[in-house]
Amino acid sequence: MSNIQRSSNIDLLRGFIMIFMALDHASAMIGRVHFSEMWGVDFKGYPDIYWWFTRFISHLCAPGFFFLMGMSIYLFSQKRLASNWSPSKIRNYFFKRGGFILLFMLIEFLGWGISFLSNQLESSGGALPGHYTGGFLIPSTVLYGLATCMMIGGCLWNLKNWQLLMITILSFVASAFYINQSISTEAFHPLEHFIIVPGMSNGAMVIYPIIPWIGVTTFGMFMAQILHKKPKHFYSITLYLGLIFILSFINLRFLEWGNFQLNSYSDWISFFTLIKYPPSINFTLITCGINLIVLFLFSKINHYDWLKPVQIFGQTAMFFYIAHLYLYAMLSFIFPKGASIEIMYLFWIIGLFLLYFICNAFLKFKKKKPLDSLWRMV
Asked: CA 336, CA 115: separation in Å to the nearest integer?
């Protein structure tokens, strides 16, 4: 299997989940409806099956980003080793890129700020866990989680496969233990939020702390090692592993284990209502399972031309992320009181159409820059 084929499949999956990330944010900015499946907080539920599906399909995004980042860290490292980069130079690259991503949070905050000027977001899920009295606050987003996990992953890519798997398991064990021992209304130290427990207390508001998400990253690195060593069998492995993950989710959900909640479902929609912050084992199993199966499917159809827009979105991930925030934020001024789900979907598609041309132009620009250019990191 060529490096081009590997990259193509990863770009396709990344582009696929970015499309549904855009749907989730169109829901927040245009539909004025967003959900927050937090630990320790009563969840109001979804208004109907359509809003549930809109949110559920977006759940593929965060685990997909961290998983694919882990894969890319390992594959990039192997490629650079072959071109005589030293391990220290590779580590420095990921520290540099992680820091670059952290800087993008400032641009990201402005995009969300514009959307909040146009309307007041309706949210389901209640307040964040923790105790906030209005003091000093450092907010962070998914970019914080991705950046910090990239820096850490940049130091772990040369570990053995079993070591990466152990880190993955331990991250979920540590997260589950800490959450189960915590009280959601207590005040947490800011470092607790940044490292392990999502929520908001004086000093920090964190949605994607390091420990719950580093395990998804190292799982991606674990799978990338398999791809590197057994390229002919890799996609069959992703299919079977994805099915095992989904079956494991179903079994655990029936047993009401692994979702940070007890007695948490009464019908099939509530059965699929899963704690995302932090990622429960049920949430991780079904989302990673679906992503693995989709990766297998892309390996079979990656030659079709109609997938080009999806691949372009995957090749311009960071640029797409910032561009789509500002685009949907500007569109939100048309709907100061929100929009129906049908109108929201229409403007989501219109946004994707515009983003294709914007991202395609940026990709052409980016490819003209040298390999060590900062533009290559966007």
From this structure: 9
Q: What are phi and psi of 261, to 5 degrees?
A: -145, 150
Q: How many domains does the chain have?
A: 1
Q: Quote the radius of gyration of the chain (alpha carbons, Å).
A: 20
Under 8 Å between Cβ of 218 and 162: no
Cα–Cα distance measured from residue 204 to residue 36, given in angstroms and rounded to the nearest whole number:
18
Pairing of strands 199-201, 204-206: antiparallel
The SS3 of residue 181 is coil
Q: Rounded to 5 degrees, what angle do the CA atoms 23, 148, 378 make?
A: 55
Angstrom CA distances, 68 to 278, 314, 358, stand at 19, 11, 23
Cα angle value 326/328/333 (rounded, 5°): 100
Cβ atoms 361, 320 nearer than 8 A: no
Alpha carbon distances (Å) from 375 to 27, 137, 179, 367, 370? 30, 31, 39, 9, 9
Helix (H) or strand (E) holding 201: strand 199-201
Q: What is the pTM of this model?
A: 0.95
Q: Hey, what are 280's tokens?
A: 């429960």
Could you tell me if 312 and 356 are in contact, meaning their C-beta atoms sit under 8 angstroms apart? Answer: yes
* DSSP one-letter code for 239: H
* Domain region containing 236: 3-377
193-238: per-residue pLDDT in tens?
999 999 999 999 999 999 999 999 999 999 999 999 999 999 999 9
